[in-house]
Inverse folding.
């Protein structure tokens, strides 16, 4: 298994062979742009950075995401990583400025920029839209990491005019960054991200918004479930206004369906003793179970794992010791989640393992002095 942290934050190494060749120009030195730069620099690729913000550009360069642009630069690939409301403008400018370069973008909405460019009559032969499904709650060059794309899907939107050689350039970039290329039409992409990215952002924000006026006593009861549900609510409002506005129709379709589902549950709970009310609630929970089962797991598989919850003392080195003991037991950690209870001197490590090793895992850890809080078989 490839460890994401095999890719360093900044460059200076050529231990891996890059598929990308020549100079790669990145316009927009924020989180995604600088992260792409870090990963490519680590592979020995010549990376040029450009940004309308001098401070952002200097910061990204100082952190090692690339170098400043020169007048004689002739990039083979241009990656546009700017806010959605200026994506089309920058794509058009880069296509005109570098007539030999392939141009791609990483905007989270694909149809709106494409429509704008077509309406302007821009020759899009060398343009291939793309979008990495990766990111962090924090933005900017200071938050950039070379490994945020590793194992993540990266959508490529080509059309009938796309040359095979140009497609190979974009796919080479994606593979260099450790991501998995997936081909979709712009329409399919925008419908998909409305469901799995844009509406979840709104739901998380709406739920977290209920905490603003909540009593402090209520919030002290918050556990890992509510933290998981609202994690992405910390995202930047100014960026999401642009994203949601550019993908409004698909987002509204999902929201309308969700609103209908919420109404059904609310109506059932207004009179829990009414005929069919309990079934409506149970069906809602069960349908959620079925939906979660469809989410791809490790390596894109739908395979489910069992969980073992271990109590870990809040002391330095304890988590490392746990991993060491699991290694000695020949138990592979498929996934890990940590939960901390306010005021407690220990945390809970929820470890996902293959079903066949649960008993060996539990018995072996207990023999080594670990306390098992629960397993998914309990």
């Amino acid at each position: 298994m490839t460890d994401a942290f095999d890719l360093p934050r900044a460059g200076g190494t050529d231990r891996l062979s890059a598929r990308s060749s020549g100079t790669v120009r990145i316009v927009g030195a924020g989180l995604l742009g600088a992260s792409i730069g870090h990963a490519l620099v680590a592979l020995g690729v010549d990376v040029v950075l450009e940004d309308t913000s001098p401070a952002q550009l200097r910061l990204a360069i100082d952190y090692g995401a690339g170098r400043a642009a020169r007048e004689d630069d002739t990039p083979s690939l241009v990656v546009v990583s700017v806010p959605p409301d200026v994506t089309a403008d920058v794509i058009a400018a880069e296509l005109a400025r570098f007539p030999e370069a392939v141009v791609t973008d990483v905007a989270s909405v694909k149809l709106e920029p494409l429509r704008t460019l077509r309406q302007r009559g821009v020759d899009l032969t060398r343009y291939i839209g793309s979008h990495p499904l990766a990111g962090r709650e924090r933005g900017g060059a200071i938050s950039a990491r070379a490994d945020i794309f590793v194992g993540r899907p990266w959508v490529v939107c080509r059309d009938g005019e796309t040359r095979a050689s140009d497609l190979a350039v974009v796919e080479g970039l994606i593979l260099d960054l450790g991501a998995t290329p997936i081909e979709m039409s712009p329409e399919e992409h925008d419908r998909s991200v409305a469901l799995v990215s844009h509406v979840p952002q709104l739901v998380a924000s709406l739920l977290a918004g209920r905490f603003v006026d909540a009593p402090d006593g209520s919030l002290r009861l918050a556990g890992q479930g509510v933290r998981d549900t609202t994690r992405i609510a910390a995202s930047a409002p100014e960026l999401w206004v642009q994203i949601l506005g550019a993908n409004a129709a698909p987002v509204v379709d999902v929201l309308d369906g969700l609103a209908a589902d919420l109404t059904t549950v609310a109506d059932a709970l207004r009179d829990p003793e009414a005929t069919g009310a309990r079934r409506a609630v149970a069906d809602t929970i069960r349908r959620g179970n079925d939906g979660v089962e469809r989410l791809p797991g490790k390596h894109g598989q739908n395979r489910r794992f069992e969980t073992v919850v271990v109590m870990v003392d809040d002391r330095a080195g304890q988590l490392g010791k746990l991993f060491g003991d699991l290694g000695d037991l020949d138990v592979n950690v498929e996934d890990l989640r940590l939960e901390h209870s306010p005021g407690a001197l220990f945390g809970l490590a929820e470890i996902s393992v293959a079903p066949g090793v649960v008993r060996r895992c539990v018995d072996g850890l207990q023999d080594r002095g670990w306390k098992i809080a629960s397993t998914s078989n309990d």
About this structure: Residues 186-209 form the longest helix (24 residues). The mean pLDDT is 89. The domain at 4-184 is CATH 3.40.50.720 (Rossmann fold).
